[in-house]
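Two quick folds needed for the group meeting slides. Do the first one here.
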Amino acid sequence: IVGTAKAEEVRIDPKEVEKMVPATISIMPTGIDEALGPDKLRDLMTFLLGTSPSMPNDRAGGPPPRSRAEVERALAGAPPADSDPRPMQVVLVAGAKDHGPGEHDYPAWLRAWKTLFEAANNVVVTTAMDWPEPEAFETADAIVFYQQGKWNEQRASDIDTFLKRGGGVSYIHYAVDGGTDAAGFAERIGLAWKGGGSKFRHGALDMLFKSNHPITRNINRLQLEDESYWQLVGDAESIDILGSGQDDDAMQPLVWCHEREAGRVFVSIPGHYSWTFDDPLFRILLLRGIAWTAHQPVDRFNELIYLGASVQEKSHGASSNRESAE
């Protein structure tokens, strides 16, 4: 398969190829360096020469790629991208991996999503293991946690101060673990996991979403192969439940947001398997949620959706077994 400058694919029978030699000129459009300018050109080359912002493919049995049509339906209605958005500081926080291949791979997520956010316009991204440095709570716009949660009094103080000044926090999957103070954690994020009391299930999730929130625009239903939590500690009446799925014969909160003082909180229970982070529809939800917590337009990170994502460009007669963006 040969790619052309018009982004077309030309299939050539290998038997017809007499020899192959490196091209002496690039297929990049002529004048692209002048059109982009030095800063955007540097960003482009960094992305092209760097690692793909995707998770390791180290577990068999993942879901099929999404079709581009599914993704475009979810993105419909977005305003044109802002060429000069407000500067934003994002802090990504991970922890030590605590499950098998393809599960709870916090360090791999940290690397992949740092690369992902580095491709965003006017975003400074920093990373931390276990817990951010104190200055992060003074300067960050959004902090994203993907780790096993470890709640204590000092962390409660840091988050309270951060939310009071208008910061945004996002918690993914096991980051909602409240340890010995699940009730105290739930006061900040709405609902929290309690070991020995909360329940979980691996497998197919069929989530239904409310349609009147910016984060869930165009996404009414989403099917994932991941993990659900329920019987969590906290008051479900205190949160805005965005998405839920059925377990124990009842609809259980799986994605929600919450406002506390001047700050905002976004939570996604899905995020157990690495492949979920490469699902472009899950990315839309997560990136919208992160932008929302930072008081930014929810479409702020649309340019990142496809980078390293699992997308089937052409169906060739195949179809996905997952319904979404209805």
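Then this one, please, same format:
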Amino acid sequence: MSRYYIGLMSGTSLDGVDAVLVEFDGNTPCCIAAHTEPYPTTLRNALLELCRPDATVKKMMELDVQLGRLYAQQIQQLLANTGVSPQQIEAIGTHGQTIHHRPDTRYPSTLQIGDP
């Protein structure tokens, strides 16, 4: 029996979101569909501003929701294009959008947003 999984990924370049639908038949994966959705210009600019040290938590929370909605729209489009129903999806994995990445500080940390 086939199992379907969706993965979402976006990088620090803020060029867009990559989505992939993968089917597993046993242990063998097969890419069913993949798509990259560029960020709308206004969202990309807002995300770039959010990466600044003076960004507010309020703005971070707003963009967290906007990204989650964009991710959901991309998933819905991927499913519509392939004819796979949401009920067939075993899991969805997303890295989120990195807005702060400080690995070389006293307290190494990273922060992603995009809670679907």
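Slide caption for protein two: The domain at 2-113 is CATH 3.30.420.40 (Nucleotidyltransferase; domain 5).
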